[in-house]
Amino acid sequence: MPNWGGGAKCGACEKTVYHAEEIQCNGRSFHKSCFLCMACRKALDSTTVAAHESEIYCKTCYGRKYGPKGVGFGQGAGCLSTDTGDHLGLNLQQGSPKPVRPSTPTNASKFAKKMVDVDKCPRCGKSVYAAEKIMGGGKPWHKTCFRCAICGKSLESTNVTDKDGELYCKVCYAKNFGPKGIGFGGLTQVEKKE
């Protein structure tokens, strides 16, 4: 029967995986949000995944479940580990563990919550999305708002300074907030005391 629903089915949640959200591992497709260790639920990527048949684990849980056991195979500085993995859902005395799935269903409210939690630009007050975000002074800024508050010059990480939540180029910062007096370029002549 043809697959009319779009892409392949996710190896974790069995829902359709479309190309934009697909991660492939061991010949199976997963949603990016479902590509989690079956034991500890840690997010995985191509460098941290360890696959065993149809199961995926982080390297730590995989080692606990399928790695060598016994004297001489301690984890760390030659010690014998007594960690059975029970707190991770690994019951090493029995067969394969049951995958732990989140108890709350995935729905549109997660998306709506993410949309509400978007950072705001301190200069214009509008939402700053990842594609246009520049960090400066510990705050997210739009690329177009990442300018000196005095002269309007576009800033980079090499010429930005911040004071009281506002950004300045180094020249404007030195003129307005830097040290003043002889030797600092602030005075050209010394007044004679009479």
Automatic annotation (TrEMBL):
Specify where it is mainly localized. nucleus
Superkingdom is Eukaryota
Instruction: List this protein's GO terms for biological process.
Output: cardiac muscle contraction; muscle tissue development; sarcomere organization
Note the InterPro entries from the entry.
Znf_LIM
Q: Which residues form the LIM zinc-binding domain?
A: 8-68, 119-179
Write out the entry's keywords from A to Z: LIM domain, Metal-binding, Nucleus, Repeat, Zinc
- Pfam families found in the cross-reference section: LIM
Compartments (UniProt record):
Nucleus
Matches recorded under Gene3D superfamilies: Cysteine Rich Protein
Cellular component per GO, a single term: nucleus
**GO molecular function of the protein, one example?**
actinin binding
Q: Can you say what this protein is called?
A: CSRP3 protein
Q: Which organism is it from?
A: Irena cyanogastra (Philippine fairy-bluebird)
Its taxonomic path starts at: Eukaryota, Metazoa, Chordata, Craniata, Vertebrata
